[in-house]
Specification:
Structural class: mainly alpha
Strand content: under 5%
Shape: globular
Mean pLDDT: 82
Radius of gyration: 22 Å
Number of helices: 14
Number of strands: 0
Number of domains: 1
Distance between the termini: 21 Å
Order of helices and strands: HHHHHHHHHHHHHH
Length: 352
């Protein structure tokens, strides 16, 4: 990473923190916060942090399983470390880029450093992305259907916003299904869209745009083919992904208990958190800063009530986003310094 990129990342982090502080300042009553802070159960907070580590651990396990499946040149003893490193550094870059778009390119570079070919690395990352997207979309849809009455009664004022999030992610899921079974349709759709964009002068080169689109479809086809080639392992990946998503959404329920609250089932809290995730995931802001905080108050306000919602939102964001940003950022920094020192000790003629 260049010095300029490091400064950009640092600046983005400061902006994210500043925006969060402004939002929290508007929504949190300081005196109430002080009262709530005195009653928070630290054990539950530690448990919520533990769920974040569990989330990363399962991510690493899935990347490791995919690596083992697609690349027979990687030393099996090194796969766990490669997977952990790829997960944590990828999480950091995902957290500081819009749509989490910076994670996969960095992860692909990391895999290349460990002698994983570009095609195999792409298959691993695409496979992981597809499994997660299918899981999280179906997870939220199923829970929404099972708890439809509760959602409609508690959040009737924002059902349009919730519906929009579900629709957008359902469209994404539909595209994944067509990529798996009708990739030629997706290529044809891309060509038609490119023709339209070219006609209204929104793209300069129709040929280059079409080439990129076809390349995108073929990359995803490769990842899907790898998943389809081993149904048993793919089934295991989906089970692990369901557990991973549950751990992440379960952080909110653990915070609910940390604030000495009870009476609402874990399933309902997890359902609302899943819906919130679906609603803000398409917001093109690093870490969905602003959208997540406001969305939390709207979607989970009925769970935490006015007295606790500010503290709950603060704890949730600190654990689910800012803790990850700090921990993964420090991990990335330490690895970068260590690898730079190791590289400096290797004689130049051995680097060629």
């Amino acid at each position: 990473m260049t010095r300029q990129q490091k400064w950009i990342n640092f600046t983005i982090m400061l902006i994210l923190i500043g925006v969060t502080v402004l939002i929290l300042k508007r929504q949190i009553n300081v005196s109430q916060m002080m009262q709530v802070a005195q009653t928070v159960k630290i054990g539950y907070i530690a448990g919520a942090i533990g769920l974040m580590f569990g989330f990363w651990g399962l991510e690493s396990l899935m990347i490791g399983l995919l690596l083992d499946h697609v690349d027979d040149k990687v030393d099996r003893k090194h796969i766990p470390w490669i997977a952990i490193k790829t997960t944590l550094i990828g999480q950091y870059y995902s957290n500081i880029t819009p749509f989490a778009s910076g994670g996969q390119p960095i992860q692909l570079l990391l895999l290349r450093k460990h002698k994983v070919s570009t095609s195999n690395g792409t298959a691993v990352l695409v496979g992981k992305f597809l499994v997660f997207q299918v899981t999280v979309t179906l997870y939220a849809l199923v829970l929404s259907i099972l708890n439809f009455k509760y959602i409609f009664n508690e959040m009737s004022l924002i059902t349009g916003f919730l519906a929009l999030g579900l629709v957008i992610n359902t469209i994404g899921l539909s595209l994944i299904i067509f990529l798996a079974f009708k990739p030629d349709w997706i290529k044809y759709l891309g060509k038609k869209i490119n023709a339209l964009l070219s006609h209204i002068k929104l793209i300069k080169s129709r040929e280059k745009s079409e080439s990129r689109w076809v390349g995108f479809v073929e990359e995803y086809q490769q990842g899907i083919d790898k998943l389809k080639s081993d149904p048993k392992k793919t089934f295991v990946l989906f089970i692990l992904s369901i557990l991973q998503v549950t751990l992440f959404f379960g952080i909110t329920y653990v915070i609910y208990r940390a604030l000495n609250l009870s009476g609402i089932s874990p399933l309902k809290v997890i359902t609302l958190q899943a819906i919130l995730y679906m609603c803000v995931s398409f917001v093109p802001i690093p870490g969905t800063v602003g959208a997540s905080e406001v969305g939390f108050s709207m979607v989970l306000g009925s769970v935490f009530t006015t007295h606790f919602v500010g503290a709950a939102m603060l704890l949730w964001r600190l654990i689910s986003y800012y803790f990850g940003l700090l921990f993964c950022g420090l991990f990335t920094l330490v690895i970068s310094i260590y690898e730079h020192k190791v590289k400096a000790k290797i004689p130049e003629h051995k680097l060629v």
